[in-house]
User: What shape does this take?
Amino acid sequence: MQIKQGGFAVGNLNLKKYFLPKNLKRDLPSSIVVFLVALPLCLGIALASGAPLFAGVLTGIIGGIVVGALSGSQLSVAGPAAGLTVIVLNAITSLGTYETFLLALVLAGIFQMLLGILKAGTIANYFPSSVIEGMLAAIGIILIMKQFPHAVGYDANFEGDERFSQSDEHNTFSGIMQAFSKINYGAVIIAAVSLLLMIYWPKFKKLAVVPAPLLVVLAGIGLSAVFAGTSFELLDKQFVRIPIVNSSSEFFALFKSADFSAIGNKQVWITAFTIAIVASLETLLSLEAVDKIDPIKRISPTNRELVAQGIGNITSGLLGGLPMTAVIVRSSANVNAGGRTKMSTVIHGMLLLISLLFIPVLINLIPLSCLAAILLMTGYKLTRISLFKHMWHMGLSQFIPFVVTIVAVVLTDLLIGVGIGMLVGVFYILRTNLRNPYFYQIVKNGDKNVIRIRLAEEVSFLNKAAIQITLTSLPKGSDVIIDGSNSRYIDPDVLEIIHNYKHNAYTKGIIVQLHEIKEQYDVPPLKELMYNPN
Assistant: This one.
């Protein structure tokens, strides 16, 4: 059963459901998991983007509290996106100052709001299911490969960078090989203990009131303290690192403001448009993916999400943050941790704010290897073997786009990989359409063959070639009935072929009858054409 989430109506929000005990007992533990996953990712993406580390955490806070409150999605989590790191890094360099980049981010948020108001979010309805499943599985594989170096104590690569090729001239595979040569056994022990806790702790129902990821973090802090001064001791770079703020003046000094004097700069507008398009696509892809793994199967309103993301990016640009999108890693961690409503997302944003203000020293005691264990489990759940078996049983038309998407995303990045998967998926859609524009039936009438061709409900221009080949190959001397009684729409090009065939068929001794075929058909809505199985 699918539960549709309605449009955004401020005066009609049902706030009670977010504070129901049955929801909060799921959302509170889940928010802790998302917070633990989001914190190092926010810092790592800021580092990879060439921005202040504070900007990454600030973006996570805004994504959690502002976008979380405005979004219609119950499980998606917004924050700084790894897919935008290259765009941001290049933009900061080309625009000259970080403040000028912030202006581009404000404009990008305005563009996103306009896309939502113009209902551009409906494009998400046309992503093939096999491609979305492939994207999820690929994210799972990337998580496992990217987190493995952290799990064994090798932390040279950027945290949060999901691309295959790295900025240090290495790639995902070479990073793993390097990790094998620089293993820290203290980190390995912490990761192993963390994985065991993640696997077995939930099996003890009475003890599972304490979330496994929280226990993992506490165990990681404890073991790292025990290893201090031994050969298993962790290095400074193997811990989470967030800025330490000692006073309110220091805190407010971390904020940046957009430079509106650069509004006439053409490059600012180009950067804004680029960020808006890429961020919107990543958001729609992530939203579609999260809806697929939502155990309640709710449908998120895409246009409202674009408006919420736009407001989030405007806020981020005005305060000194980074571009944000709905992000699949944090969102899937939210789902796997048992999140039920968007309170989980909002609380995770509050926890990021609290950690920045009050407990930065404590947060900096968390080893990256125990956080890697949490993400390794998330990756495993996204790319489980049973998913591959399920897609195989769905047939090659589903399995091939699924596998192509996985390989393409792993070897390139999210948007390029999904684009390649989409091309393959669309090929199979067109192939199916070309094969099924009609039903073909031959009956005997004395010595003559009577051929009845019953056209499908929707006959588009994509079916033109198949129908033309069929008509020209009909045997001489036949009686042909072309039946359009089931057709709600026949493309003008196809109608032209049918009428021309009837006009010229006598040269082959063929008598053609047209049954309930109109001279002209009204064009049906695009959505109906896209979803028609014929």
About this structure: The chain has a mean pLDDT of 83. Residues 31 and 344 are 5 Å apart (CA to CA). The chain has 21 helices and ten strands.
